[in-house]
Amino acid sequence: MNCKDLTICDYIKHNGTIKIVDAVYLYSVSVYDPGKPWGAASSELISVDDIEPIKLTEEILVKNGFKKVNMTVDGDYRHYHLHGVCISWEEQSGFWYGEGDIEFKYVHQLQHLLRLCGIDMELTI
């Protein structure tokens, strides 16, 4: 990953554990494990080379309140809506917003899209 692709509150994976970014630097990020009792007080600084993005799935969309509104007969093309935001999914190309202008495949990218659309919500992974 690249630090310029991340922002505070993004979900990432480090050593197989989901963590939340609380600071972004040039070649590293500060992250914490939301499952630990001290949360952000137990932040650790790690190299951006040691983190990985979390792949976005349809299950994550549904778990976070997105409603499947329609699909093609063969089921390979779907639309998901939440608070006026429509995300499309196709077997071949993955997820996109708008007329295919914004393609994404990771949870942190979905978080950025939601923020840009004025939706302030904490995702469940």
Task: Please give the structural blueprint.
Layout: E1 11-14, E2 17-24, E3 28-32, E4 44-47, E5 51-52, H1 58-63, E6 67-71, E7 77-82, E8 85-90, E9 94-97, E10 102-104, H2 107-116
Antiparallel strand pairs: 1-2, 1-5, 2-3, 3-4, 6-7, 7-8, 8-9, 9-10
Overall description:
With 125 residues, the chain is mainly β. The model has no long low-confidence stretch (mean pLDDT 89). The strands form two sheets. The chain has a five-stranded antiparallel sheet. It is built from two helices and ten strands. The longest helix has 10 residues, at 107-116. The protein has two domains: 3-52; 58-116, no CATH class. The radius of gyration is 16 Å and the shape is elongated. It has helices at 58-63, 107-116; strands at residues 11-14, 17-24, 28-32, 44-47, 51-52, 67-71, 77-82, 85-90, 94-97, 102-104.
